[in-house]
Specification:
By secondary structure, the protein is α/β, with parallel strands linked by helices. It folds into 6 domains: 247 residues, no CATH class; 202 residues, P-loop containing nucleotide triphosphate hydrolases (Rossmann fold, 3-Layer(aba) Sandwich), CATH 3.40.50.300; 199 residues, Rossmann fold (3-Layer(aba) Sandwich), CATH 3.40.50; 121 residues; 72 residues; 98 residues, no CATH class. 48% of the residues lie in helices and 12% in strands. The longest helix is centred in the C-terminal third of the chain and has 24 residues. The chain is globular, with a radius of gyration of 34 Å. The two termini are 33 Å apart. Its EC number is 3.1.21.3. One of its GO terms (molecular function) is ATP binding.
Length: 1040
């Protein structure tokens, strides 16, 4: 972390060694630098009747009490949200003024407008203690602003090789330290978290899941710095940038949790703010278009902009009118604005969002002409009736209209009405797919102010890439039978009637909507989904051309018994759908609607979407037009297309499956209509448009919308070769033991007494290579074209499948040998999984996590029959298992842990002398493993033989006092004391199981008097802290 400290120092932060910062903290559980906070408060001045006054000692104490008194009883995120309100809104105190009156100024914790007046301290590796027990933790670097730890930076682990440290290890440490039994008190205050790896960096905030940690991309260019970690630190931790981010670009959402803006949102809002401040000759504010690709969080960007308008001095007087064209979008935006603090406070009440919504055109007219509301939500269609009322006019230039999806319904007369009643308003359009024809969007709203391309979104991990596969069904026609049938039903008709009848039955609608065709495709969809998507816990959509097709698909899919489905569409009298249907079809739709939806369509849709976002059914949503735009569900992974789509409608639809999810590497488009030509055409149009934006992006920036499945499975030869290359030293490819030996743990001494597994990085490389190969093969097997491709032979497919079986079996063996219960081949978010590479020189320290197989497997083989290679592998396996057992299973018995750790060192030294006799090595280690399993240690009272926990507490006393002092007290006295400690701990754990933070306090309070009499204050405190640590371990195991 020395490099991070150097970068911070160059930005104006002052390096504070941990020892210096410790003098400003009241103890290892205190994370604030209280004197630094008080110093900053003493410098603050508030105004009263034209005079400036300092805070009194009582006022400063009120602020400090508010900041220190944040409880974790409601959870970490709730406490962090309370502190964020204090940070951004300030603390109101009571001051008694010289004139005898009471005054209540609001005191800011930081000076937002003048960053240099704040105190910027960077503390290196301060020691913090866990909430249960006194287990030490040392975060990499803490960034303090006025004594408040607002920034936490984690880098390469201590003892690890900094050039080979993947960034996901730093992320995992950040998440681990937020656990309730770790150091959550630090993250009550932390606002920006950084994870630095070897050449990579990610940032997030408190509570951010691994998949949502983002890479910072500075605009324009790459920013200053020789590598990504340096550029990230310099970009985000410049004092003025950090304060701007924390004040304007952090929000709390009830669904997403705490959110910090991504780079495209930050720079997009800044570009919009600059645009709004520009004026036209008539004094009106300038407008423009923000084009951020679908799925990149436009609604949150609108919230960030609305909040920035509140605080910016040039726009504080502006009113905000949020315009959209769909009720569900209005619901979503109102919810996001309420949760995100766009109403001028960190959190607004639900009623604030409801009051901001317009119920009728009459009400919209009143609010436009005479209203004073800060934010108003309306549907664009309400302008039709609103503009007919005389009061519906406002020439103010301090109105900002935020128009969501500005390409869809805001054209023609509706758009003209909006501009007529708000002639000087700044109209800002937010869209993922601007209307291309004659660039109407930019003509109406102004130029594209900021763009975030499809390819950049994929590169950043904001969205996942899309794979396209065409599965147009082949349907034969029996010409003789068709002609005979047609001649029979047309007998007696006039030539004109015959021609009309023939046209009806040969129309596109008749062909694509034929029941036999829908049944055929439904079976294909059901089988594909059941085999390749369902087992991942993901969902899908079926896009159909008409309501009648949707209903028929639903019936056919349900008849397969393989998947569950539901239909979401507008009421029968609504003109939704591409294909017209006849009277009989409309009657069928009406009957289905009455039977399945009834009168409350909104409740039906809400219920279906709620279930779709959960683990159960429906697994497929069948839609016509609804939910092909503005529908964001991360589980949605595959779109089956059986309808014509063009231009922006096509790009909007396919983007329904590009939201990131832990189980989703890509979104899949399965085309039954042959829309590939339209897709390519739409992409070329958007390439040309993006080239004309102010960002000046390359023409191929949009090319990342999709790629054919063949581009994915043709990576298989290279991925297979990379997997095989990890085992170049294996002499006999048929000998499993040689592969196993290549991955077997190898522990070396780190110099600090802690064993380091030199093979960990190699196993990580194997897991990553196997995961990439396996996932690519799974994608290939889900594609019909893989098996039809003449470049892929049947022998190659058989080889790939055999290799997958072999290496997955090897993976399970390697994980068992290393005592790794986590499936490292499939864990972690996609944009983090590629961090590990074949750099085998790294030495990794792994903290124990999860549950381990600590009981040795039954020994059924006859060791004397083993080959030397097999015996050596088994000896290495027992050695690794012993290390893990002593480290993890004996964590609740420090004395036994110490005894057996010494015995293991002796055994390892003896095995080194038996290098050429692996069978004797194995037998020596097996005998020690049997002793560890029985926990047979000497020197403790025999009366505790049936009381393992009391025996552990007695062992702690022996460790702390030493052999000589321990022997001065009779064994029966130690037995009674150990049983007493066991009773105290057991009672505390039972009585405070719902609030484990109190367990340590209760144990200390009960044990200190009796242990003080037995061994003195210093030894008593050390014994108690070790007892509390054992209680923490027991509590962790009980919660698993």
């Amino acid at each position: 972390m020395n490099a991070a400290l150097r970068w911070l120092a160059s930005l104006g932060w002052r390096h504070r060694p941990a020892a210096e910062a410790a003098r400003w903290r009241s103890g290892p559980n205190d994370v604030l630098l209280r004197p630094r906070l008080i110093q900053a408060l003493q410098a603050h001045r508030f105004e009263y009747r034209g005079e400036r006054y300092p805070l009194s000692a009582g006022g400063i104490d009120q602020v400090v009490r508010e900041v220190e008194g944040l409880s974790l009883a409601d959870g970490l995120l709730a406490a962090n949200e309370r502190f964020y309100r204090l940070l951004t809104l300030g603390v109101t105190v009571t001051e008694f003024m010289p004139d005898g009156k009471k005054h209540q100024p609001t005191v800011p914790l930081v000076d937002w407008e003048a960053p240099d007046t704040n105190q910027w301290d960077a503390v290196e590796s301060p020691e913090l203690h866990t909430t249960i027990g006194a287990h030490p933790r040392r975060p990499g670097v803490l960034g303090y602003v006025n004594g408040l730890p607002l920034v936490v930076i984690e880098g390469p682990a201590s003892g690890g090789h900094p050039r080979a440290a993947p960034v996901h290890e730093a992320i995992q440490r950040q998440l681990h330290h937020q656990r309730p039994d770790e150091t959550p008190g630090l993250f009550v205050y932390a606002q920006l978290l950084l994870a630095l790896g070897s050449g990579e960096a990610r940032y997030a905030t408190t509570g951010t899941p691994p998949r949502a940690w983002a890479r910072w991309r500075e605009e324009p260019g790459d920013g200053t710095g020789s590598n990504e970690p340096e550029r990230t630190v310099r970009a985000l931790l410049r004092p003025e940038r950090l304060l701007e981010l924390l004040r304007h670009f952090v929000l709390f959402d009830r669904r997403l949790g705490k959110v910090i803006a991504r780079p495209h949102q930050y720079f997009g809002v800044r570009a919009m703010l600059q645009r709004i401040q520009q004026r036209r000759p008539d004094g009106a504010r300038q407008g423009g278009v923000l084009w951020h690709t679908t799925g990149s969080g436009k609604s949150l960007t609108m919230v960030f902009l609305a909040r920035a308008l509140v605080f910016h001095p040039d726009t504080q007087a502006c009113r905000v009118l949020v315009v959209t064209d769909r009720l569900d979008l209005e619901d979503q935006l109102a919810r996001n604005f309420t949760n995100g603090g766009a109403f001028g406070s960190a959190v607004a009440a639900k009623k604030d969002g409801e009051k901001a919504r317009v119920g009728s055109g009459r009400e919209l007219a009143r609010r436009i002409g005479r209203g004073s509301e800060r934010i108003v939500f309306t549907l664009v269609h309400k302008f039709t009736t609103a503009t007919q009322r005389p009061e519906c006019y406002n020439p103010s230039a301090d109105i900002v209209a935020l128009v969501d999806e500005g390409h869809r319904s805001h054209g023609g007369q509706l758009h003209e009405r909006l501009r007529r009643v708000l002639p000087r308003a700044a109209c800002l359009a937010f869209t993922g797919t601007p209307l291309l024809k004659e660039e109407k969007t930019s003509q109406r709203f102004g130029p594209i102010v900021h763009a975030y391309s499809l390819q950049r979104a994929v590169d950043d991990g904001t969205v996942v890439p899309l794979l396209y596969e065409e599965r147009v069904p082949e349907m034969g026609v029996d010409d003789d039978a068709a002609n005979h049938w047609f001649n029979r039903i047309s007998a007696g008709l006039t030539p004109e009637q015959t021609a009309e009848l023939k046209g009806r039955y040969t129309s596109r609608r008749a062909v694509y909507g034929a029941p036999q065709r829908i049944e055929l495709i439904a079976w294909d969809i059901a089988q594909h989904f059941e085999r390749h998507v369902k087992r991942l816990g993901l969902k899908g959509q079926v896009a159909t051309a008409s309501k009648l097709d949707a209903i028929r698909y639903h019936r056919c899919l349900e008849a397969t018994g393989l998947v569950s489905s539901a239909v979401i569409m507008s009421p029968p009298d609504n003109g939704e759908g591409h294909d017209a249907i006849d009277d009989q079809g409309r009657l069928e739709v009406q009957r289905w609607w009455d039977a399945h939806v009834g009168r409350d369509a909104q409740a039906h849709e809400h219920r279906v979407l709620r279930d779709f976002s959960g683990d159960g059914g429906p697994e497929l949503l069948i839609v016509v037009d609804r939910l092909l735009t503005g529908f964001d569900e991360p589980r949605n992974a595959v779109l089956y297309i059986d309808k014509p789509l063009k231009a922006h409608n096509l790009i909007q639809a396919v983007a329904r499956v590009n939201r990131p999810h832990e189980a989703k590497r890509h979104g899949l488009l399965v085309d039954y209509r042959g829309i590939l030509r339209e897709l390519d055409s739409a992409l070329r149009d958007y390439q040309n448009l993006e080239a004309r934006t102010q960002g000046g992006y390359e023409l191929d920036d949009v090319a990342g919308l999709y790629r054919p499945v063949s581009a994915e499975y043709r990576q298989l030869p290279a991925l297979h070769a990379a997997l095989r290359a990890l085992f170049d030293e294996v002499r006999d490819p048929s000998d499993l033991e040689q592969y196993r030996q290549a991955l077997m743990p190898r522990f070396v001494d780190s110099g600090s007494g802690q064993g380091l597994d030199a093979q960990q990085q190699r196993r990580d490389a194997f897991y990553a290579a196997l995961r990439r190969f396996t996932q690519c093969l799974q994608t290939a097997e889900a594609s019909r074209s893989f098996f039809d491709d003449p470049q892929v032979s049947e022998q190659a497919i058989a080889t790939y499948r055999a290799e997958r079986r072999f290496f997955n079996g090897l993976r399970r063996i390697a994980q068992g040998d290393a005592q790794e219960t986590e499936d490292r081949s499939d864990s972690g978010p996609e944009h983090l999984r590629h961090a590990a590479g074949p750099r085998w020189q790294r030495l990794a320290v792994r903290e124990p996590e999860g549950a381990y197989l600590l009981t040795p497997p039954a020994r059924t083989d006859a060791p004397e029959r083993w080959s030397p290679e097999k015996a050596r592998n088994e000896a290495d396996l027992v050695r690794a298992r012993l290390r893990k057992t002593i480290q993890v299973a004996l964590a609740d018995d420090p004395y036994a842990q110490t005894v057996f750790a010494d015995r293991l060192k002796q055994a390892v030294a003896q095995t080194q002398a038996l290098f050429d006799q692996p069978l004797k090595q194995y037998m020596l280690l097996v005998r020690l493993e049997d002793q560890v399993a029985a926990r047979t240690v000497d020197g403790l009272p025999g009366a505790l033989a049936d009381h393992p926990l009391a025996r552990a507490y007695c062992g702690i006393c022996r460790l702390v006092l030493g052999e000589e002092a321990f022997a001065r007290t009779p064994p029966d006295a130690w037995a009674r004391q150990a049983l007493s400690i066991d009773a105290v701990v057991g009672r505390a754990m039972v009585e405070h199981s719902l609030n484990p933070h109190n367990i340590g306090f209760v144990i200390r309070q009960a044990l200190l008097p009796e242990l003080f009499a037995l061994m003195g204050l210093e030894h008593a405190r050390e014994v108690i802290e070790r007892v509390v640590e054992v209680a923490r371990v027991r509590m962790e195991r009980a919660c698993r």
